[in-house]
Amino acid sequence: MCAEQAKIRWGILSCARVARNRWIPALREINASISAIASRSLEKAQQWAHELDIPRAWGSYEQLLDDPEIDAVFIGLPNSLHHPWTLRALQAGKHVLCDKPLALNAEQAREMVRMAGQQNRLLMEGFMYQYIGQYEIIQHWLRDDSIGPLKMIRIGFSFFFNRPGDIRYEPDLGGGALLDLGCYCVNLIRRMAGTEPVRAFGTMTKNPQTGADWTTSAILEFPDGLKAVFDCSFAYQGDQFLDIVGTQGTISSNWPFTPKEEIILTLKRQEEKITRTLSPNSPYARCVEDFQNRLHSGTILPCPARDAICNLKVLDAVRQSALEHNPPGIEILPEHG
Predict the structure, then answer these.
(1) Confidence of residue 321 (pLDDT cuts 50, 70, 90)
(2) Residues 11, 94: contact at Cβ < 8 Å?
(3) How high is the pLDDT of residue 31?
(4) pLDDT reported for residue 34
(5) How far is CA 54 from CA 58, 66, 73, 288, in A?
(6) Is the Cβ–Cβ distance between 308 and 101 less than 8 Å?
(7) Are strands 150-158 and 72-75 parallel, antiparallel or unpaired?
(8) By the 8 A CB rule, do 3 and 296 touch?
(9) Over 63-131, what HEC string results?
(10) What are 213's strand-pairing partners?
(11) What does the alpha-carbon distance between residue 212 and residue 151 come to, in Å, rounded to a whole number?
């Protein structure tokens, strides 16, 4: 089967900025067919449909899922709505590309993956950063054992956020830094490690007005002695970095997730330093293209979203550790005299 023989007809289950600014342009870039858009407000859906040249607008999510001329949906709703509307979409016979994180916790993700299998539908989590070209180079360096056995992975992802009323402020909607930014950090750590962590230690600072976690830091321990640390925050100036440290060298990137300028990859080992500079590509378009290629080739199972269960298990553990203050840490008393 090829794309020309069976063009996938998309529905957009969201009138959110991420859909308008990222995923709809990505679909346009690969010449995908966008057939309909839905909002809880028919007026808003009609406005977006007019502005974005989308044929049909629906005033409820249910109406879009009942549309027989939709094959796949993109879900860009608040995090708390990913689980219920993904289940409904799968039950309606639609394939689903869901924005990250797939769910609020691992148990929700398990239910979503089970439903995808029962309905024989493709379910994929929209971790677009995985399609940035730098990771082909990084994986090549790691496969070649360029820096020796891994010992430490360090990741930071932050930006100063001040938009009161945004869903990121609302813990009941799945807001907060851990799910919004930490999900990237954990996913990348797991990919680079090639195995799953066995222990997590977390600490968290909450937004004083809403209670959403605003800064979360964590240490992950792996069975082979590898450790990873990450920090994610809405409380301070934007920053991203990736450091992969081995016994013989390091690999670093200045833009691991959302490159806004040239990516600088650096491999250091002994007296040698290799630098690669890459222009940002279109990871959102490559992600959608991968989704469509899976459908065209019939590669639906095993469900690619199954990885989200492992990712959310780690996020769950970091959250639990932070909320339970476990371990409580060691008190450092002030010096006297």
Answers:
(1) very high
(2) yes
(3) 94
(4) 97
(5) 11, 17, 14, 18
(6) yes
(7) unpaired
(8) yes
(9) HHHCCCCCCEEEECCCHHHHHHHHHHHHHCCCEEEEECCCCCCHHHHHHHHHHHHHHCCCEEEECHHHH
(10) 206
(11) 32
Q: In what order do the strands lie in the sheet with 263-269?
A: 199-206, 213-221, 227-233, 150-158, 239-246, 249-253, 263-269, 272-278
291 Cα distance to chain centroid: 15
Residue 175 phi, psi dihedral angles, 5° rounding: -75, 180
How far is 215 from 229, CA to CA, in rounded Å?
14
Between the two ends of the chain, the Cα-to-Cα distance in Å is 79
The mean pLDDT value of the chain amounts to 93
Contact 234, 159 (CB under 8 A): yes
**Contact of 112 with 123, CB cutoff 8 Å:** yes
Q: In the structure, what pLDDT confidence band is assigned to residue 114 with cuts at 50, 70 and 90? A: very high
From the list 244, 252, 207, the residue with the least C-alpha distance to 228 is 244
What are the backbone dihedrals phi and psi of residue 20, each rounded to the nearest 5 degrees, phi first?
Answer: -70, -40
Structural tokens at position 313: 């298990």
- Sequence-distant (≥ 6) Cβ neighbours of residue 168 within 8 angstroms: 161, 175, 176, 180, 212, 234
pLDDT at 1 over 50: no
> Identity (one letter) of the amino acid at 222?
F
Whole-angstrom CA distances from 142 to 58, 77, 136, 291 are 48, 36, 10, 26
d(CA 167, CA 169): 5
* Confidence band, pLDDT 50/70/90 cuts, at residue 55: very high
